[in-house]
Design goal:
Elements: E1 3-9, E2 12-18, E3 20-22, E4 29-30, E5 34-39, E6 43-51, H1 53-64, H2 83-105, E7 115-123, E8 129-133, E9 139-141, E10 148-152, H3 158-164, H4 171-188, E11 196-202, E12 210-214, H5 219-238
Antiparallel strand pairs: 1-2, 1-10, 2-11, 3-4, 5-6, 6-7, 7-8, 8-9, 11-12
Length: about 250
């Protein structure tokens, strides 16, 4: 399983993903799920993946066209005139990849090779945009009503985002909010784990504003984790006490 979040702010886009693909007592694997490509001064586009690892790696490989010689490669997401076209192309590749693998595996492959993706970015002359792409290849776009998307193991970290998100918040506060959301998910689900990948894309810069990998010994994440736990306990004890009714 996995956990990825893409968030739209007035200032730009903030993305974070975990890197765990398998979990168990003696079987933990780590793979990057956050990728980005750019043309300086013209566009910056990022993709996050959740689902079957073979499927997502096949899609990323096709986006980068790794089977071609280096001089013949043309990354298709750098050719689209709009973010809508980029999302449409990625959705088509995802759908075709899933269909091809499922056909090759017959009935045994049904439902086993699905994946979901978050696509975020900005092309010069247009606003930053955020999309969530489904296994069928269709997608939805973030809006004022739905300003962030989650894929993977979403339920544990979602309440944090709903209560804390503000579209006008700073990048720093957005990162802090995501740290809390991921910490809550890590505490509740073994299938999500460190390291975490963070990417910040400021509006109209068409470059990576900030990128960071949160590892097991990251001092800031440790502070957030312990501080959030202490804050929750203090908030709990500050609530009015419950009393049994005398006439119960």
């Amino acid at each position: 399983m996995t956990y990825c979040v893409g968030m739209v702010l007035d200032k730009g886009l903030v993305l974070m993903s975990d890197t765990r693909t398998n979990s168990g007592v003696d079987n933990i694997s780590t793979f990057r799920k956050l990728f980005h490509w750019g043309v300086p001064g013209e566009r910056m586009i990022a993709v996050m993946t959740a689902g079957n690892l073979a499927t997502t790696q096949a899609v990323i490989s096709q986006l980068e066209e790794r089977t071609k010689a280096p001089e013949d490669r043309e990354n298709c997401i750098l050719q689209g005139a709009t973010m809508f076209q980029v999302a449409t192309q990625i959705g088509r590749i995802l759908r075709n990849t899933i269909e091809e693998v499922q056909r090759a595996n017959g009935d045994a492959g049904k439902g086993r090779f699905t994946a979901t993706m978050i696509v975020a970015g900005q092309i010069k002359g247009m606003q930053p945009r955020l999309f969530m792409i489904y296994p069928e290849g269709n997608f939805i776009e973030a809006s004022w009503d739905t300003p962030f998307f989650q894929i993977g193991e979403t339920k544990y970290g979602r309440p944090i985002l709903i209560r804390g998100y503000e579209r006008g918040m700073s990048f720093e506060d957005a990162v802090k909010l995501l740290m809390v959301s991921f910490d809550s998910t890590l505490k509740a689900n073994l299938s999500v784990g460190l390291p975490l990948d963070l990417l910040v894309l400021a509006k109209d810069t068409f470059a990576v504003t900030h990128a960071h990998r949160v590892t097991e010994d990251d001092p800031y994440f440790d502070t957030i984790s312990s501080g959030w736990g202490n804050a929750l306990r203090q908030a709990f004890h500050s609530l009015p006490p419950y009393h049994f009714s005398d006439d119960a």
